Amino acid sequence: MTYNKLKPFTILIFILFISCGRNNNKEVQQEKIKTEVDSYQFDIENTKVIWNGYKTNDKVKVVGYFDEFSCDREDQEFSSIEELVNGLQFSIKSSSSVSGDPMRDKNLQDHFFKYLTKDFVINGTLNSPINDSIDVTFDVFGKTKQIRLAFLYHIIPGCPYFDHIVEIKGSINLESQFDALKAYNAISNKCYDLHKGADGISKTWKQVDVHVKALVINTNYSQIRQEDSSRIGYISIEEVFARNEFISNR
Fold first, then answer.
1. Phi, psi at 55, each rounded to 5°
2. 37-249 architecture in CATH?
3. How far apart are CA 69 and CA 124, in angstroms?
């Protein structure tokens, strides 16, 4: 009689033990991976290159982004984010600028980027990060312009694969840092009336803000990521990145 009473209890303990083992399997895998060397890959499909311009004495912000760009680090893996960034060469198609206003986009292409970029291409190189800053070298009509911008990266909150978001942002003075008065004067004259404020005075600011936001994948978790993708309700890190849209960070 005693045996019959203990048997169901023993089976229950056994089931719970097996169940807990399965639930912790993923955690064990993650702990094991943490001891290995991380490997990082740049995800160009989830990269945003944003610009902000300003008009009127009230400094009204005009927001846009570049829809076409490339770099020489696609499909390559690096042991650190600093290594991934250092020496990265990029190319931005300035004619792909989108601001939400077709007329403005046309004016910028014909009266700004035409005088700022050769063949509507912005080429440049990222240098080695220095703490929370990075020097970016731009090629402007064959002349190099080096500008220091803010640099930061962080793990995406709640991401089990330890993916990161890398950001580069700051301000550029078109006259003193880019020697781009010809481009500035062209767009300022073209949009003279459009850039008038409530005071009736037209002003185009020489300051342009830039903000690059990129998703960096930790490829060391590729196997777990692939296993998780088969689960119902799974949300990819790319979707998380998209939901955390760059618009909120403009």
1. -140, 160
2. Beta Barrel (2.40)
3. 11
Per-residue pLDDT reduced to its tens digit, 17-56: 333 344 444 454 444 444 467 899 999 989 999 999 999 9
Global pTM reads 0.79
Task: Determine the Cα–Cα distance for residues 163 and 24; give it in Å rounded to an integer.
Answer: 21
Extract the tokens encoding 130: 């220095």
Return the domain boundaries, the chain.
1-36, 37-249
Taking the C-alpha atoms of residue 165 and residue 236, their distance in angstroms, rounded to an integer, is: 15
Q: Buried b / exposed e across 3-27, counting CB within 10 Å, b at 16+?
A: eeeeeeeeeeeeeeeeeeeeeeeee
* Distance of alpha carbon 162 from alpha carbon 34, whole angstroms: 10
Which tokens go with 149? 């911008």
